Amino acid sequence: MDFALTLLQWFRENGRDLPWRQTRDPYAIWLSEIILQQTQVKQGWEYWERFICRWPTVEALAAATEDEVLREWQGLGYYSRARNLHYAARQIIDLGHFPNTLEDLRRLKGVGDYTAAAIGSIAFDLPAAVVDGNVYRVLARYFGVNIPINTTEGKKTFSALAQSLLPEPPCQKQKDNCRHLNAVYNQAIMDFGAIQCTPQSPHCTVCPLMESCEAFRSGKVGNLPVKLKNLKVCERHLVYVYIRCQGETAIHRRGAGDIWQGLWEPYSPTILSEGKDGLTKSSDSEILNTLRGINGTLVSLRRDVKHVLTHRVLYADFYLLETDVRPELPSDYIWIPETQFSDYAVPRLIEILLESL
Asked: What topology does CATH give the domain 234-355?
C-alpha cells in the first residue's frame, strides 16, 4: 500500500475545511500556524478570525503596539507566541517581503522547523515535510518506530522519515487541483493524526492503513509514540491584592525572566516559591504591612485557586483592599480607572480571580 497516496485519498474524503486553507497568502497561513501552536483548532479558529479582521495584513500587525497584540491574544496562553508574532511581523516589514525560503522563514522569531515547513509547503510549494505531534504519532505507529520523539535521535529519525515520504510528482495524477501536492500531503497527515489516528481511542478498525500498520499488527498502538518523561513540575504560591481607591486600582506589568512577561496584574505583595519544607503563605497582617500608611479593609476573596501551566502548578490567594488613600507602591505600578482594567492584557489566572469581584 502506498502510504502517501492512501493519506491523500483519505484527506479528500475527510479533511477539515479550515479558512486558512482557502488561501495561499503567507501572512494568513503563518498567523494560523503560530496561533495553533499549543492550541486546539476549535479555539484557535476564533482567534485567527479576530486577528485577520483587526490586522488583515502583516503591515497592519507590525504597526500595532505589543500591548494591543497581547490584549487580542488574551485567553490563548503561552504569551511568548504573541510577542514573537509581533516581533516577526516587524522583521518581515524590515525584510521588504514575506520570506519564501525555509532558511529565511526560520529566521523569523518564533518560527522553527515545523512552522517553516508548514508555511513553506502551503504558501510557496516548497518540498518540506512537517513534523508535529500528529505526524510523530502517525509515523511511529505505522512504521513501528519506538525511538523517543523528544530526543535528538528521535527528532532526526522522524524528520528524515517524514521527508522521505513526500509524494513524488507522478502522484499529481491523483488530481488535487486546488493545491500543490506537498501542501495537500502535509495537511493530510496532520488531519489524519488529529481525526483518525488520535492519541486516545484511535479508529483503527476503520483505518485505511490498518492492514499495513505495524503498531496495529503487533498490538502496540497504545504504546506509540514513545516519549521520555523528564519534565519536573514546580509549585508556586502567589498572592494578589486588588486595591480599590476612589474608583481606581493599581496594576503593574510583569517583567522578563518569568511567566507572563509583558502582561498586567494587580498588586502582588509577595510571590513565594516552594522550599524544602513546602509552600509557605503570607498572613493577612503581613500583607497589610506591605501597604504602608493605609487604613482600609482587607477582605479575602479566594484561597488556593489552582492554575496549571505546562511545567508549573500555581496556587493563588486573592484579596480586596478598599481604602480612600493610595498606598505607597513600587515605582512600576500605575493607577488606572477600574472601568479600564479590561483594556489591559492579563493572564488567564488573573481573569479568574477578577471574577470574584
From this structure: Nucleoside Triphosphate Pyrophosphohydrolase (3.90.79)
C-alpha cell at 101: 525560503
Alpha-carbon distance values, 113 to 44, 97, 160, 182 (Å):
21, 20, 12, 16
Q: Residue 233 is placed in which grid cell?
A: 513540575
Phi, psi (rounded to 5 degrees) for 333: -90, 145
- Enumerate the domain spans of the chain: 3-218, 234-355
Q: pTM (2 decimals)?
A: 0.82
Can you tell me which residue has the cell 510557496? Answer: 124
Q: What's the pLDDT score for residue 1?
A: 58
Any catalytic annotation for residue 33?
A: yes
Peptide bond into 225 cis (omega under 30): yes
Q: Cα 300 to chain center, whole Å?
A: 33
Q: Write the burial class of residue 35 (CB in 10 Å: 0-12 exposed, 13-18 middle, 19+ buried).
A: buried
Q: Which helix (H) or strand (E) holds 357?
A: none
**What is the C-alpha separation between 296 and 320, in angstroms, rounded?**
10
| pLDDT tens readout for residues 285-324 | 677 677 766 777 889 999 999 999 878 899 999 999 999 9
62 contact partners, CB below 8 Å, separation of at least 6: 86, 89, 90, 92, 93
Which member of 13, 33, 66, 322 is catalytic? 33
Write the CATH number of the domain with boundaries 3-218: 1.10.340.30
Specify whether the CB–CB gap between 132 and 46 falls below 8 A: no
| Cell 493519506 -> residue | 7
What would the pLDDT profile of 68-121 be if each residue is shown by its tens digit?
A: 999 999 999 999 999 999 999 999 999 999 999 999 999 999 999 999 999 999
Query: Does the structure show a pLDDT above 60 at 148?
Result: yes
